[in-house]
Amino acid sequence: MNEQIKLFLKFLQNDKKLSDNTLQSYQRDITQFEKYVEENQIDYIKVDEKEVKKYLDYLQEIGKKSSTVSRNLASIRSFYQFLVRNKKVLVDPTNNIQAPKIEKRVPSILTAKEVELLLDQPQNVDLKGIRDKAMLEFAYATGMRVTEIISLNLEDVNFEEAYVSCKTGTKQRNIPLGNMSLNALKEYVEEARPYLIKDDGVKSLFVNINGKRLTRQGFWKIVKYYKEQAHITKDITPHVLRHSFATHLLQNGADLKAIQTMLGHSDISSTQVYMQFQDEGLKNVYKNTHPRA
Q: Which residue, 20, 63, 148, 288, shows the most beta carbons closer than 10 Å to its own?
């Protein structure tokens, strides 16, 4: 089974062009399933619908959320579909299994005043402060995922046209930048980044104090630090800024389809969760709807 898992992951990477994070998720799910199969002395080639259901029940018994169980089923289904295509098994045992219903949680969001308070915390008195100001403004201005932000290179920002190109796997989307974010970003790129990087060959847009590409953990720590400085009691993560971005656009009249495009959601149902926060308002252009445009 281990050899087939390696071939499956290679297929996802080379043919499906999945991102590293998605690949790691598949690997975790399938490796966990492999461990279960081996511990229960089950031949993976002979796994049937009953065995897969027992495994999903097992995941729920050990406290896994419905969303995690559903993701595991999707990973196992993809793996067996790969095996069927390569004639390693005759039938996909997940064919008739439905994923557990997932309750859509209300996303945590900040009010416009809380966002303003948070983004006003970094002081432009040193290199780190200039970078942090640009980074927080950028995160709220674009609604991009943390992984997407830290993966950006300097060349991905078009300062003249005021947008950033976000590439995820084989997909690309262009997200507009408001004046406040653009100005903070220009100041960072011109006055801080050149002094933070130790090598002119560094392409990363956001770098740490050692001149290397900023990490997810580094990003999270920065957000947490300024949340505490602002004395905001809500739990704030980089993803909360993404939720707030989408909600505030919608509240100010932005079109749901436009928000879906900016967020990079493949399915509009993922974007519709923000509808519960919608107020009557003006129609959709970013310049008219983003609070800090």
A: 148
